[in-house]
């Protein structure tokens, strides 16, 4: 795949970039390795100062960075600005909390282990490779980079090939904030070259957010090298609506959950599982609100839904819808691409789904919602858990006992009650099953790429 910026709203190639050759890749790995030796010896206070300066740069650059994001992957400009500011918030969160998250711990009674003192310390691993997707070009990277650098690690980034401007922006960002040269380096390489980077002895771990096949490939290489890996591989998240729910609020949030980021979000609500007692009322509200969305130029503040990021991505969505319709699904809204330049797809609602339809089990990465009618909470959980994914979930219910039951029975890395799934710096983020393993964000995220070292003293 060419490394180039293609405007998804028009299909026009904006700029093409030369991939890094083997000599440049070697130079950048060497820079990151040298910086790791320096960074691990700096204090948390010094790293925090650099982090806050980096956040200042992002906040001051919000409009330019947001326009870059929208140009490269097509999300509405207001959402791009929100992404940039969220990155700054995450950077400040780790600047302020890293030291406490990684504080040494002393055993209360060291005599229990025949010692005068005993406990644990956290230490950085060194160079960590991040293989990142295009759907949140800055946020996906920052949520790894901020904790990694605050822990004293350095980062290498292999970004998606359709967001090279974002990749190069990140290549300079932390150094502008004051971090030692080489603390974070972008590699403009193709996916076939990732394995060689993982295999490099100077690279100590890898994290990937992306497709399940990409995750299997990276995990296989990391396993062969006996290196730590964290994987976030997408999801087909259930959004369950029970009779005690506030249907107007639930339907409004359901629309936002499905079309945020033009529907291209791992944690988007994708399968809307509705109790039979409120199915018709909820679906009527949901469909009306989906039909009312404005599809258009992502640079226009009034736009709700922009184009999909790639032509192939739109083709994938269209194929899933066409397969479902051919097998008897009902199209309650949308169902096709509008007749206009760019890679747009109309907000779509499908009903009458059966297990032989691909959309039932596969992740739909675009503004397409699937609705299911269920008889009770047991059937709701059966439908919710039937896919191979387990990233997040949402449940709308006014019954606290019912809420607790769903929390206990849903196979997912998170359950959001009467809301939509959102990633927060303060909360761990990650999935189970084919959605991956490991966690990002919160204390768990910064500890993933550290060595928990036991210290025993006679």
UniProtKB/TrEMBL annotation:
EC number: 1.2.1.79
Pfam families assigned: Aldedh
GO-annotated molecular function: aldehyde dehydrogenase [NAD(P)+] activity; succinate-semialdehyde dehydrogenase (NAD+) activity; succinate-semialdehyde dehydrogenase (NADP+) activity
InterPro entries with a match to the protein in the record: Ald_DH/histidinol_DH (IPR016161), Ald_DH_C (IPR016163), Ald_DH_N (IPR016162), Aldehyde_DH_dom (IPR015590), ALDH_GabD1-like (IPR044148), GABD/Sad-like (IPR047110)
The keyword Oxidoreductase is assigned to this record: yes
Keyword check for Acetylation: no
Keywords associated with the record: NADP, Oxidoreductase, Tricarboxylic acid cycle
Domain Aldehyde dehydrogenase: 3-455
Enzyme class: oxidoreductase
Coiled-coil stretches: none
GO BP, sorted A to Z: tricarboxylic acid cycle
Signal peptide bounds: none
PANTHER family linked: SUCCINATE SEMIALDEHYDE DEHYDROGENASE [NAD(P)+] SAD
Record family assignment: Belongs to the aldehyde dehydrogenase family.
Name of the protein this chain belongs to: Succinate-semialdehyde dehydrogenase [NADP(+)] 1
Species for this entry: Mycolicibacterium chlorophenolicum
Lineage: Bacteria, Bacillati, Actinomycetota, Actinomycetes, Mycobacteriales
Underlying gene: gabD1_3
